[in-house]
Every structure is written in structure tokens, then in C-alpha cells.
Amino acid sequence: MFKRILLVKLALFCVLITQAQNNKNRKTVTTKRVTKAPKIDGTLEDVAWQDAEILSDFVIFRPDNGKLVSSEYQTFVKVVYDDEAVYISAQLLDPDPMSIPQEFAVRDNFSQADFFLVTINPNDDGQNPFEFIVQVTGNQGDAKVSNGNEDFNWSAVWESATKITDKGWNVEIKLPYRAIRFANRPVQSWGFNFHRRLEKLNEQHTWTHIDNSVGRWTQYDGLIEGFKNITPPTRLNLYPYASATSVSFDGETEYDYSVGMDLKYGLTDNFTLDATLIPDFSQVGFDNVELNLGPFEQQFTEQRQFFTEGTELFNKGNLFYSRRVGGRPIDQFNIASNLIEQENFDTNGKRVNEKIIDYPGKVTMLNAIKISGRTKSGLGIGFFNAITETTEATIRTTTEQMSGGTTTSTVTTRKETINPFSNYNIMVLDQQFNQNSTVTLINTNVTRDGRFRDANVTALDWHIETKDSKYNADGSFKMSNISDDINNPNTGYTFDNSFGYNSGHWNWEIGYNFENKDFNPNDLGILFSNDQQAIYGSAGWRTLQPTKKFNNYSFNFYNQVNFQHFSGAYTGYEAGFNASAQTKKRFTFGGNLNYGSKNRDYFEPRQGTTSGVYFLRPERMNVNGWISTNSQKKLELNANGYFTNFTNHPQQSYGVSISPRYRFTNQFSLQYRLNYNKTKNDQGYVDQVNNDVVFGQRDRKSYTNTISGKYSFSTNSSLSLSFRHYWSDVAYNSFYNLNSDGSLAVNNNYTTNDLNFNSWNLDLNYFWQFAPGSQLIVFYRNSIFDSNNNSGLKFFKNLDNLFDQPQQHTLSVRFVYFIDYNRIKNIFS
Q1: What is the DSSP letter of 286?
Q2: Closest CA to 102 of 133, 139, 61, 63
Q3: What is the DSSP letter of 68?
Q4: Which pairing describes strands 222-228 and 28-30: parallel, antiparallel, or unpaired?
Q5: CA dihedral of residues 97, 99, 100, 102 (deg, nearest 10)
Q6: What is the phi-psi region of residue 773: left when phi exceeds 0, alpha when psi lies from -120 to 50, beta otherwise?
Q7: What is the DSSP letter of 575?
Q8: pLDDT tens, 250-302?
Q9: Each residue's pLDDT tens digit, 536-576
Q10: How far apart are CA 299 and CA 286, in angstroms?
Q11: Cis-peptide, bond into residue 240, ω within 30° of zero
Q12: Interior CA angle at 246 toward 242 and 249, to 5°?
């Protein structure tokens, strides 16, 4: 109780702290209002740019931090505004314009090309700027930044143009006020910074100096004053869409279509409502499915745009795993396990056969909304809500009755709910202060209709730094409550806090964390294991300036002592050392050396952590290394490898990954990756027979082949390829019973089948942005999945067998059109 009161007092104290710009000698200029907007064509000859104050004297950010840029590579920027937008022009000098790298890419994807970057922070809080990027090819990118983390899933609609000249290249940008959020005040001053990337020199320049020895890069903005009498517009953007999909599998073809809309509406100057009405996720990428023999679920990345864009507030505290919404059915009553097919006989000889004939793999999301924003005082507020429809499995019941030598058969079907109508909520209050600190209160809630479980999780999360950004405290306290008609309601909790230092060459951290046995955020979040506690620490050293041979290098050491929380039993110790470096020729390399003591694994036996049953894993040593060649060359190679040895144990593990990328032209590139892993004499859970927990010793190997490529017709039109074949082979050679001391005893009576697992996906995607914010996307997928017992096959024989399986072909066409309310209003007025 004392800890909770102390944390609440700390949060209240933080809310009262005023914000202040850390940069004492910040650059400050005054903008000007123009009566005629410049034409966005990259020529810089418009009247609007005349007499505008010039922003220059750029300095090097990387690698020679703080060094003044030479006159031949200087950059000159101007900023003006009118009633509709902020306009930015930049002249970027280069003595050899023809040598500027110009590889094409599409929006929010970056290539080997110079770029110009603008950060705008209307609240001038040093933590939450908007970021707009234009590459020399004209390609755009934008991001929303929070505490130095860039979210490129966020997108706005704005204009830009570039032009290569005999002096270098020019860029012009128009940022409509609807693209950013700012308060409605008569006179405003905004935080700004400007970055320039020179690929051929491997340098990044900035208008204001960013000290890389302390603090975050967002804390070093300059100030542009004099924005007068600008009014935030009605921020209402509509994205109506129409899509049509054809799916063919095993000789049958199904057609579907969808019409819906996404919208963004500015509720106030700083708060926005995002909604998806009749969502359509038919064109999301494939998941990297793998054979999972472990005790925990596989985590997949989110690929649905609504759940990736503008979610930085909702990801606070790590309580939001968006794949829970519209994911697999919860199936709380184990219908899939109990009723796949079973037969019963009653006392009269009646035989009843039940079989699931339809079991949906996903839950349909009906709609979802997000409301988010941040006040001038630094208080971020977020609200998320989504609802999913009832999902049912169809069960066929066949009843056979013998009477007078005659058998009568009756067939009926019924439906069982495997996921009820569900409501998902998130509420976030996030107070930032001092340009480097934040305290967050977050609550997630899942309410399900009927007799299914409900869940509620609340967390207080904090990251607090001293005013000089050298020392910090980082941690959280979380509590979960599960309400369940089957099991008794239970409450779990977790705590974590660390103290650290990060300034100059050195950084260090020491901390403690635990999760008790009942902490469970997995109805809307994801946590692999609870009932653990650890004391941990790390220390690192890094260069701040390049040396004669290296652009940078760093070292880091970590160690951690682990215990079970329920019993307090010591479970193991782990430590490691890693290093990385980049040479002057842009060759990057690094490696790790890791140690793990014998450790008690309470999760692998699948008996519950409080049962006292554990598997004693052997002591291990691991070494791995990686390299990456100069990405500016046409041929780039990334490779890594590892080897793990287990002390006094036959288990060994090793693997290698090789990934060459070749840029044929500025428009066409191709990348291939081979990943091979093998483990000899791996030991893990297989089954439970009566009271015996059965483990198997097995040889495992896996291959992953991936190909990705793109051809850019222009910066607004491209054809891309994504291919992945994953193959895992498992061969058992012996079986054991798990002993009470965590060791294994030979079991000669148990047998099970080997495993051969294949996942094949190929996506071909054509993208055309035919107007700002408007897109046409044509999508084709070929996918195959197979799991059988044919272990030990050669690679090409396995492929032959895989292509004997039915293939699924998906073709989808999606049309999205961007509508700006203000433009429509002006047309009709």
C-alpha cells in the first residue's frame, strides 16, 4: 500500500512540473506571412520566398557530431505561411549534383537517396514533433514522434516537389494546417529543426546542433516565431473505399466485396477521432508462421493499418497486443478440443457421433475508433474502442439407433459460441514534462457477452529523468483482474523499477522486477510468462566522435539473477557481453558472448508454475556474430551466425543467415535471405500420460527462404514481391519421464510421430497513388500449408510433396479515395 501511495504522489508531483526548453542558446528566427502562396515545383523563384529570413549554418549530426558543415555542402532554408499552410523551401548545395544517389522508393520507404527532413513541434515540448521527409527523388515520408521514437505508420496528406540544379538540389514543401495539430492562439512560436542526409558522404546535417552525448534528439529544436492569426481548420478527412476479392482453394472459388470508410475528425485543436467503419483487411501481409513446440504462443506483428497508425499512446505499458482484436476465437470451453470428433454409446446401444464441420479461424471486427491527442501542458489522452461479432462453430450430430434389427440414422446440426460479442476498451492518461519525462496511467478492459470471461488491467508507468537528462528512473506497477464463471476471480500484479545513467560515453542500469502467479494481461495484451522475479543490471560504453578507422563502436555487458516469485526458489543466472562497430568504409560488424547457468524451467512441463514441477535445463554458452557491408554499393550483404554448446549434455545448436541485396537500377532491386537452424538432441515436452510428464529428445532443423523485390515505375507507383517458404523437420530419437528433481528418466514404452511442417506464401502487390492520399492496390497471394509426419526428407523431395497439397489463390483489388472536407466546402462556397 505504501508503494502505491508513493507512486500516486509522484505522478501528481510530475503533473505540476512546468516544461522548459533545455537548449539555452537555441536558434530563433521570425517567419513571415505571404499573400500569394509559392508554387510547389522546386524552382524557388516565387515572390513568396523574397525577403524571407534564411536559416543556415548547418552542423554535422553524424558522424562528426557538432562540426560545422563546409560551405560547399551548406543548406539554406526559408519558412513562410498563409491562412492555409506552412511553406518550406530548401537549397541543398552539392559540388557534384550528378553524383547524388537517387534510388527510387514509395511512400514511407527509404532508399539510397539523399533526403531533407523537417520536424515541427507546435507545442514546443521537446518530445512530440511531427516529421516530414522528402527524398531527392520526390518520395515522401512522414512520422509522428514520441520521446524520440518515430512512428512511420502515421500518415498525413501534404505536397512537395524537388529539382536537381547545377548547384545541388532544391525542395519545396506545403504543409496544410490539417496535417498537424496546434492550439488556436493569436501569436504562436513553434519548435523546428531541419535535417539533411548526404548518402555519398555518410553524413547527416542539422540546422540546430544536437548533442549526442546527452538527452534525446527532439530536445534540441530551434524556435520559429511570428505565426499570427492562423486558425486551425476543420480537420475532417474521409477515406471511402471499395474492394473486391476472389479466393480459390481446392477447386472451389468464392467471391466477396466490401464497401466502407475510414475517417479522421479533429474533435478539438489537439484531439483527433480515427474510425474504421466496416473494416476491410483483405490485403494485409502474411504472418511468418513457424512450428511452435514451446509452452508459449507465437507473437505476430500487426499489419492492419488502423492498428499500426497513431497508436503510440495505446502502446504505453506494453498492455496492448492489437492482434487480440479480430484474432483467433477465445474458445473458453475448449469446444475445438472436445468436439472435433467423438462417439458415445448409451445404455440402449444408441451411438452418437459429433463432429465440428465449420470452425472459423478468426473473429470478425465490426468497427473500431481511436481518440487521441495532447494538450499544451503535455497531457496526452487516448481512448480506444473496438467491438467484434459473435463467432460460432457448427457441429454435426449423427445418431444411430438399433431397433428390431433395423438401424435408423438421424443427422442434426447445431452451433456453439466459441467467441461471444466482445467489447475492447483502452483509456490512457500520459503526462509529459521537462522534455524528457513521462508518467502514464493506462487501463484496458475486455467485456464479453454471456458466460465468457471478462478482464481488466490497470497500470501506472513512469520514465523520469533529471533536468540534465543524465540520471533516470524507469518502471511500472500493473494489476490484472479476471472475472470468470468457471474459475474463481483472481487478481494479479507486477512491479518493475530501474535506476540508470546515460550521458557521455557511459550508460548503466540496475533494477528489479517481478510478476506474481496470477498476473495475466493476455485478454488484450501479451505476456509469455508470469510467476517470475529478477535482479538485473547492465553497463555500456560508446564513442561520441569518429576515430581514425571507425565511425563508431560500442560495448555492453548485462547480467540477471532469476527466481520464481511464488516460492522464491532460485531459477538461474545469465550474463552476456556484446560489441558492435562501423568502419570508415561503412562495414558494420558485431558479436555477442552469452552465458546461462543451469536453470529451473517451470513452464516447459505445462503443469502450472505453482505445481512445483520443473525441468532442469543444462548450463550453456552461446556465441554469435554478424556483418553488414556498405549499403550504398549495388551489392549489399548481411550475414550472421551462432553456436550454442551445453555443458555435460549432448545438446548443440547452431545456425546461419545470409542475405544479399542487389540494386540493378535506381528503380529495381532484389533481396534474398536464407536462414538455416539446427539443434541436435533438443529436449522438450511431448505429452502427459496419467501422472507422467513425457519429454522427448529430438533433432530439429529449419530452413527459411525469403525473397523480396520491388520495381518502382515512379515514386507513386510500384510493383513489389514478398515470398517466404518456411520448413521445419523434427525427428524424435528417445523419450523420458520427468523426475521430481527436474532430471529425465528413460521411457521405453512411449512413441510418437515425427513432424514435417511447411508454410509457403507469395504476395505480389501493385501500388498506385494516383492522387494525394488516394490509392489503387491490386494484390495477389499464393499460399500452401502442410503438416505431416514425413520427417527426414531431402529439400527438393519435400518441395515436391508440398506442391501436391491444394493451393490457395487470392486476388484482391482495393480503391481508396481521399476527401478533404475543407476543399469540398470551398468548392461549394
Answers
A1: P
A2: 139
A3: B
A4: parallel
A5: 120
A6: left
A7: E
A8: 889 999 999 999 999 999 988 999 999 988 888 888 999 999 999 999 999 99
A9: 999 999 999 999 999 999 999 999 999 999 999 999 999 99
A10: 13
A11: no
A12: 155
